[in-house]
Specification:
heterodimer; A: about 150 residues; mainly alpha; Four Helix Bundle (Hemerythrin (Met), subunit A); 7 helices; B: about 400 residues; Amino acid/polyamine transporter I; globular
Chain lengths: ~150, ~400
């Protein structure tokens, strides 16, 4: 009987110390996250220009691969649906995002991303249209947006 | 001979079944954005899921109880409602994302909009769950999922990781202001890999296949070797994305662009292989999630269950799966991008991980269930470590999601 009670006590103590250790770990990590929260993140402007630039880079590569025969047209068509969806409203987000060095830059990048997003909506996947022009626009817009994001 | 075949099949199943839309999305983004700097998270998650899967299989083999049944019996129905509810919420998001992954895969193969293909993908999942026997559900998509091994073929074809990429394995290059995103992706990888639905599914599967004490060898090998190889394919996608997408400035924000790595290495065939791999892994995972929900509800509420039984023999089990599938499909058809859904699903899974995993500590030390096969000291320490990791991830997942802007 005494052995059982002692075992139960040991079990309870062990459970308590485990709970304390888990609690402390969680507290430490959460404090670290909260305390350094400001330095951990990018400004909304950097984030949105970076994401838009990355999406346009993907669109450019897809267009290039489709015309170089590295991707099927069906694949490219489906991939562009994803890019068009991801780029919807990106121009508005760029203008509205906090942290832009200047409103002029934000407006110019928004215009550029709007033009590029239009390409993503109607990509030229056949040889009969000016796909090189679209590719140049996508590459240029992507490079400028990524540069604005500090990349 | 029969045992050898069972082990081989178990390993193949685990390799194919390890990767799902969560693993594809998080691995693709991790490689594209941080090189090899998040391979550690995949490895850590793999060790954790190996441990959990082994324990759930051992429990089923020795005691004849699934993990869900043991929780309910040992802790009571009121407690069981906690993991059940959290699993239902996490699984409905994950299922919507997995079906979205199937739809995107079909879209990449056919060029038809994934929005239009979503109902067809959901229907395919339903028909398979409704009609197919357990062995086909378990092994069919998993064997097809072996195509994920082509990620490594693509890496070799490209000449392997270039020199400057290798040091990011132990010294991740996290830019100014990118720490929140880095940590968020780490949490999302852990949430995607340590999927409780896999644990519930695995122990129920052991019962479906009538495992006994003699199946412990199969269980151990499947858990360790199978999950290990499965992890290697996911790591392959990180490496491939790091080699191809990162240098091009591509972030892996959509499923279609993650496949560009395969196209860069293998041309048109690469894109098609990626689409088939995505289909197989997401389809397999969809079936596992739906069944897992059916198992959880039926085992918790005392309903008749079993995929080998006719629908009329286990009507509530089958009805629960249909209702759940309809709810998830409704969410998926709202048009939310599958990758976004996946990241939310992985975050929510991370949030509720401790609730689903805590009972392991108690049940696996109860000789009433495990007889002489209870956890040893090392396994208990490892389980405790996983639980602490899960708690930390649960606590930071939402703040990191907000700080990073959603990955």
């Amino acid at each position: 009987m005494r052995v059982t009670i002692q075992q139960e006590r040991t079990g309870i103590n062990r459970a308590r110390s485990v709970r304390t250790a888990v609690g402390r770990s969680i507290l430490f990590v959460s404090l670290a996250v909260l305390a350094t929260g400001c330095q951990m993140t990018q400004s909304p402007f950097v984030r949105v220009t970076g994401e838009t630039g990355a999406e346009l880079a993907a669109a450019a590569t897809t267009l290039q691969y489709a015309h170089e025969g590295q991707l099927t047209h069906l694949y490219a068509q489906a991939a562009f649906e994803g890019y068009a969806s991801a780029l919807t409203g990106a121009d508005q987000e760029i203008i509205a995002a906090e942290g832009a060095p200047s409103q002029e830059l934000a407006r110019r990048l928004a215009d550029l991303s709007r033009e590029a997003a239009a390409v993503a909506e109607q990509p030229c996947l056949t040889a009969s249209c000016n796909w090189q022009g679209q590719l140049t626009l996508l590459r240029q817009a992507s490079a400028e947006l990524i540069e604005a994001a500090g990349g | 001979m029969k045992n050898v075949l069972a082990i081989a099949l178990g390993i193949l199943t685990a390799i194919g079944g390890f990767v799902d839309v969560g693993a594809v999305a998080t691995a693709g983004q991790a490689g594209a954005k941080f090189g090899l700097g998040l391979v550690w998270a995949m490895l850590l998650g793999t060790l954790a899921i190996m441990l959990l899967v082994e324990m759930s299989g051992r429990l089923a083999a020795v005691s004849g109880h699934t993990y869900a049944e043991a929780i309910r019996e040992r802790f009571g129905f009121k407690f069981y409602l906690l993991p059940l509810t959290s699993e239902l919420i996490a699984n409905v998001i994950m299922l919507a994302a997995e079906i979205g992954g199937v739809a995107v895969a079909l879209s990449l193969l056919t060029g038809v909009s994934w929005h239009l293909l979503y109902p067809a993908a959901a229907l395919l999942v339903w028909v398979t769950v409704w009609r197919a026997p357990f062995s086909l559900i378990e092994n069919g998509p998993a064997l097809l999922g072996l195509i994920t091994l082509s990620f490594w073929f693509a890496i070799v074809r490209l000449g392997g990781p270039p020199g400057p990429l290798v040091p990011t394995l132990w010294s991740p290059s996290v830019g100014h202001g990118e720490l929140a995103e880095y940590l968020y992706l780490a949490a999302a990888i852990l949430g995607a890999v340590i999927s409780p639905y896999l644990v519930f599914f695995y122990s129920s599967g052991a019962r479906e296949e009538k495992w006994t004490k003699r199946s412990e060898g199969i269980n151990l090998v499947t858990a360790i070797v199978g999950m290990g190889f499965g992890s290697i394919t996911a790591i392959g996608l990180i490496v491939l994305s790091a080699m191809v997408l990162g240098p091009m400035g591509i972030g892996g924000g959509t499923l279609g662009e993650i496949g560009l790595g395969m196209a860069a290495a293998l041309g048109r065939v690469g894109g098609v292989l990626f689409a088939i791999a995505l289909f197989a892994t997401c389809f397999g995972a969809s079936l596992e999630v739906v069944l897992s929900v059916g198992y959880n509800l039926s085992q918790g509420l005392g309903w008749e269950w079993g995929e080998e039984k006719l629908p009329a023999e286990a009507p509530r089990f089958n009805l629960a799966m249909i209702v759940f599938l309809l709810i998830a499909s409704g969410i998926g058809m709202l048009g939310i991008d599958p990758i976004q859904l996946t990241l939310y699903g992985a975050t929510f899974t991370a949030l509720v991980l401790p609730i689903s995993l805590f009972p392991f500590l108690v049940i696996m030390n109860d000789s009433a269930y495990l007889e002489d096969q209870t956890n040893g000291r090392f396994t208990n320490i490892a389980t405790l470590a996983v639980l602490i990791l899960a708690s930390v991830v649960a606590l930071v997942a939402i703040p990191l999601l907000i700080l990073s802007g959603g990955g």
